[in-house]
Amino acid sequence: MNLKMRLIVMSFLQFFVWGAWLITIGTYCFNAKGWSGAQFGAIFSTLALSSLFMPAITGIIADKWLNAEKLYGILHVLYGIVLFYVPYVNDPDTLYYVIFLAMIFYMPTISLSNSIAYTILKNNNYDVIKVFPPIRVWGTIGFIVAMWITNLTGSKANANQFIIAGIFAIILGIYSFTLPKCPPQKSIAKDTSFIEQLGLKAFTLFTNYKMALFFIFSIFLGAALQLTNMYGDSFLDDFKKVPEYSDSLVVKYSTIIMSISQISETVFILTIPFFLKRFGIKKVMLFSMIAWVLRFGLFAYGNPTDGLWMIIMSCIIYGMAFDFFNISGSLFIETTTDSKIRSSAQGLFMMMTNGVGAYLGSKVSGYMIDHYFIVNNGDKNWQGIWTYFAIYSAIIAILFAIFFKHKHNVKDVEVINH
Predict the structure, then answer these.
(1) Mean pLDDT within 28-50
(2) Entry pTM
């Protein structure tokens, strides 16, 4: 097997072992276990909590003491072992700690997989800019394939989804030990403080009004990013409670329909250079926020029959909603921060969106659903939930358009190509 193919396998499995349960854990917690929105919100928030500290810590370990591919393999094996315990958990408080432990092991592997691929490609004289993106696309494909397998094996509402992920996580862990060695670079200077090693020096950017505003909006939008991952599959699966929809394709293949969102991601990534060059970073980020309004609004009024087009369109729009803010936001950091703290600033951006924002979104959305969107028979008022999310996104978009000032510079787009 050639080198690029080996990295493709790694990328595919990296996201396969997450996609097997990430979109369907809500269906499992709500429909199989009957837990509340607040209980599920707490469980889902562990993804964000672990993102706040684990990637930085494992990055230091890989830089100073342990081969990256070995650390990567150990983390995946431990992640798989923890997932095997999920079927034995029958209360939400225990599952909170089990998933938290699983995420402590899994979340840092996302950045580690990138670092391993970069190192191996550079050591073998490949053009990383040219070769890595086609390899990384297979990660999204792995995520989609895992969703399909979970759905087609009837595992979306039971604990088998975690067994599927656990088996392949251990396979990936063992496989990683066969990859070319990625030894520690020992690039961290002895006089570098622990604060600097964790990338916390980038917090000085909050003293700049424009950057502080950007990071605040990153938190607010980060709160919206995970909402459809949390509730999308459960929402579609709940149509089975309506007699006229109970036998529909939407109910039977809810996870496969949700996978259109991930397929859309891969398509919209290709359009980003055009949109950035034509409209600029601020407008592209604004397009993302408007897309979130449409994503949630279409879900609010969609149904499995005459409203099926709304559900499909919502999934297609997801690609724009997700990609446009993440990519353009990353580019904004790249073009407006000092090179000495640029990597830390990128980490801070991810911390604000996938850490602080996602944590608040998970916790607050669960609380709001329990207190305002549960009808008399205990079912969820999904139209009200999605409408509330759409209004929230619209407010963020309006405030962003008014307060965030950034001039369009065509030269900024050149960063994408270099």
Answers:
(1) 90
(2) 0.83
Domain ranges of the chain: 1-183, 201-418
CA distances from 307 to 239, 245, 298 (A): 12, 11, 9
**Of 151-155, 262-266, 333-337, the least confident:** 333-337
Answer whether residue 322 shows pLDDT above 50.
Answer: yes
Contact indicator for 349, 330 with CB cutoff of 8 Å: yes
CATH superfamily of 1-183: MFS general substrate transporter like domains (1.20.1250.20)
Return the pLDDT at 202: 66
- From CA 8, how far away is CA 121, in angstroms rounded? 12
Q: What CATH number has the domain spanning 201-418?
A: 1.20.1250.20
Q: Which residue has the tokens 């964000």?
A: 48
Question: Between vectors from CA 379 to CA 310 and to CA 319, what angle results, nearest 5°?
Answer: 30
The whole-number pLDDT of residue 74 equals 95
